[in-house]
Amino acid sequence: MIKTENTPIAEQELSTEEKILAAARSVFTKKGMSGARMQDIADEAGINKALLHYYFRSKEKLFDRIFEEASNKMFSILNSIIADEKLSVREKIKDLIENYINMAIANPYIPAFVMGEANQNPDFIKEYLIKKISVHKQLIAHFQEAISLGEIKPTNPVQLFMNVMSLAVFPFIVRPIFQAGFGVTDEQFNALMEQRKKHLVEFIMAAIKP
After folding, report:
1. CATH code reported for the domain at 63-208
2. What are the DNA-binding region positions (predicted)?
3. 100-159 tens-digit pLDDT
4. Is 150 left (phi over 0), alpha (psi -120 to 50) or beta?
5. 126 vs 121, 130, 141, 143, CA distance in Å?
6. Which H or E run includes 98?
7. Where are the domains of the chain?
8. What is the predicted pLDDT for the residue at 4?
9. Which CATH number, 1.10.3720.10, 3.40.50.620, 3.40.50.880, 1.10.10.60, labels domain 13-57?
């Protein structure tokens, strides 16, 4: 944004902060927390390093902001679905798949960013996720209850949870490889993921049918 006398200061600052956050998402996704430098982020944002430090005093504070933003988008919806006692197991599975894929299409940097940090900083991720994923045991218990009532086929509930999430997450983790190998554009990939919502729900429902 070009600053003019008529441009409110708050709007000018918001524009600069948005540029910094967008640059930080890109750099942290490519290089991770340990590999990123503040100069890299400043260069990506098209600003000088002094201005970057004015908004964010350290790389750690900026990373915390980006990771908090990413994890909230990823886990807040999932937690709310899992905690909803009005939903059946089948409804929860359907909503988990559809909402995760919707989130990943709208925020394509998040899956690779979170998984990258999980590999590079497992202790940090473990402590962080303990706070964020507060209801996963509730979902496992719901799976077990549905199995005992004969609503779904007897299976290991932990394996079922892993199958649901991994089948939804995996395409976004390997997206660059898939797109390069098959010559798929961003638009084509997103169209495939829209189709995948229905395909994956049908696949899981068939697998758990008693």
Report:
1. 1.10.357.10
2. 37-56
3. 999 999 988 888 888 888 788 778 777 766 666 666 788 899 999 999 999 999 999 999
4. left
5. 9, 6, 22, 24
6. helix 89-106
7. 13-57, 63-208
8. 42
9. 1.10.10.60
